[in-house]
Amino acid sequence: MKRYKDIFSTFHAMYRLISTSPDMKNFISGISRLYKKVFDADEVVIICKNVDFYGFMKFRLKDKKQFIKKGGVSIITRGERSALIKSKEILLDNKFFYPFTFEDTLGTIYLRRKSKNKHFNELEKKLFLSISEEVSVGLKIFNLYYEEKRMMINYIKSLTQLLERHVPTSYLHTKNIFRLLKAMGKKMRLSEVEIRSLEHACLLHDAGKIQLPSKLLRKQKPLTGKEFKLIMKHPRKGVELIKDSKVLKPVIPIILHHHERYDGKGYPYKLKKEQIPLGSRILAVIDTFDAMYFGRPYRKRKNLKEVLSELEKQKGRQFDPKVVEIFLQVVKRENTKKYLRTFA
Ligand SMILES: [Fe+2]
User: Which residue in 65, 140, 149, 171 could disulfide with 102, CB within 3.0 to 4.6 Å?
Assistant: First the structure.
């Protein structure tokens, strides 16, 4: 690392990682590789605190292999724990430690060269400190993001509880449904973020009904045209509730279009086929399955055979045939059937 050109490109690469990484895992993975390359290190270990729903994330790059662990304090060794509480960097001839701090301790890095003869030079020491300071800023940004996310999750939870009391007809059996959703997501190769957004959409898709008269939502008799027009407003009203949250941004289109139909006869925009966001097409199938199999206060439960044949019938009409096909493959798995039978 002698040339200044290399130093500039290192900082440029780091800025790109901070601004474009979709989550902490990608950020740390990219940063570890950068440290390894720039310092010609044989081992890089990065530990971060308060990551998403996990307490810690440990990323280790050794030779050409990488290891990642997420979990509680048990994933951290005693030595690493003591490194986490150190407030000062340690720069040895062939080893570097740095505590990432920004108001609080956010994590730590340990970097080493195997050969004791391959000493780090002064420029490398200074560069290590500068890069690590920037990484602390990057970690702080992710921490703030996760903090907002945690706040939003609590907001969603209270909103859902309120919704269950106010709109019992919209109650989704989330625990059971999330299991099916995750299996579908894996089969469809959706990313973690897409699956999480779908879970949030499952919880919040009918949140807009909170703003509709409770009497209307509890009505047992068929709705009048005027009443149905009011009901049709709930996707837009739901979006109003979450539109200012950056974290819930990917959830907005799913909620807005969850009553569109594949044949274009749905609402609010009468979108057709692939014009409808994939998340909304998935939610439409899941929601209908939930209502038919687990029942609603106004609707009697159907058995699994009846539910699946109803979904088959709606292929290409109400639902995306490909999504129904994947859903059926998931539901017909022996372990899923066994699980669903426990509710029969
Ligand atoms: Fe709805």
Answer: 140
